[in-house]
Amino acid sequence: MHHVSRDDSGIKAYVLKMSAAYSYVTLRYVHDIVTGEFVNVGVVVYAPSQNFLRARFLTDFRRLNAMFREIDDAHLREMLQYLVVTFDCLEQGASSDASAIVSLVQQVLPADDSSLQWSEAGGGITSESRKSGSGESRGQI
Fold this sequence. Notes:
Layout: E1 2-6, E2 12-16, E3 20-32, E4 37-47, E5 52-57, H1 62-67, H2 73-89, H3 101-108, E6 116-118, E7 122-126, E8 130-132
Antiparallel strand pairs: 1-2, 2-8, 3-4, 3-6, 3-7, 4-5
């Protein structure tokens, strides 16, 4: 189970309780496929036994703009906002397998040759309460 609480700043924190298998993928902005340069711009975490699916994406583009001068901010912002809305609407608990995160993210943003690319899935087991989402108001992921 998870519950929602607020920290001193009023930011929602989602807490996973008990031991739970989870998986995650990061979303990368790949500026140049040839050089392989990328910056992580999002993360999706899935713990099916806790009915927990959360996605967080970059909201502050200063670091990205400092690294790569030729970014279409408006388009990237629009794409990341689409992902926020889509993951918020995605039915949770679609699978009881933590490795299902790959198919979940592919439903939302299929693999192609665009600059937004999913990483390989990672995962683990949490044995204590974990908070997620505390950096969302500062544009961090």
